[in-house]
Amino acid sequence: MRKREWSADETAGVLMLVTLVFAVGLGAVGFYVGWTVKGSSKTTAAATQTAVVSVDPHVAAGAHDFVEFACAQCHGLDGHGGVSPDVPSLTAAGKALTAVQLRRIIDHGLGESANPTKPYMPVWGAVISSQQVSDLVAYIRAGLPSVPDAVPVAVPQGQGQVVAGSALYERYGCVNCHGPNGLGGVPNPLSPDKTIPPLTGQDFRGEFNTDKKITDIIRTGSVIGRAPIVSMPHWGGIIPDDQLAALVAYLNTLK
Ligand code: HEC
Ligand code: HEC
After folding, report:
1. 237: CA distance to ligand 2 center in Å?
2. 92 occurs within a structural domain
3. Number of folded domains in the chain?
4. What is the pTM of this model?
5. CA-CA to 46 of 20 to 30 Å: which in 65, 86, 140, 199?
């Protein structure tokens, strides 16, 4: 049997077909890569998860607020407690307290004293919007279910104190009150300064001129006045010493 030789036309045709298939394949790969890069791994994971479990949007928003405002850092993940004997678990509160009572506690705080010697429930009214408080209440009353991706910011390990401190500044919700980069400016209308103070700038550096002074005020907190004035929470017994050192190292890098 004689091998059939391909004519120039046929060869060109086959080449064209191969190129076409290759191009289409490349396009598909490009599209897929572009898509996965655009949606971060977080949203992609959320998309796959929500396809399985669907969560009431208010409960979901409340779960994310619970992490963002560091409720989880004092009350434990999903409000299960166990962080400090001075901070209660919230699993019972969802059944025992009405929506009105819960809203009042979140807005006005609880257990605050003029000179806090242990953690108290901070005043959030000036910091957290009414809608966010409603979502938090919905989440607590739903029994604080675990919601996909409502997890605290991870703290990078082995990359030094400054990197860890920067993550902790978000994880403990310092950023909500003192602003990104410690710039301050978050309204606190009834306080003498009308805003929550910055953790940068000459006034701050002048008053808090040693690591110890900064560490001490984070540990003890500082109550400026009664609710609805927002005060500095007491973090002693909540934030371990190595994390306090990392936070201070991070604050020292700010302007
Ligand atoms: C700095 C730590 C800390 C943070 C942050 C914190 N809490 Fe609290 N919370 C407490 C302490 C301490 C108590 C108990 C106060 C008391 O009874 O004197 C408390 C009490 C409560 C109660 C009342 C529980 C009960 O059974 O009476 C609710 C509800 C609550 N917190 C919700 C929240 C929510 C929602 C957030 C986030 C927006 C939050 N907490 C953030 C420390 C904290
Ligand atoms: C609920 C809001 C709130 C949160 C959350 C909060 N702070 Fe504060 N913080 C304040 C207020 C208000 C003051 C001012 C207290 C005063 O003037 O006595 C303050 C004061 C301070 C000060 C002293 C600066 C000064 O001028 O008085 C430092 C340092 C500080 N906070 C660090 C932190 C760190 C670190 C975190 C996170 C672990 C944090 N704060 C979380 C509200 C907050």
Report:
1. 16
2. yes
3. 2
4. 0.84
5. 140
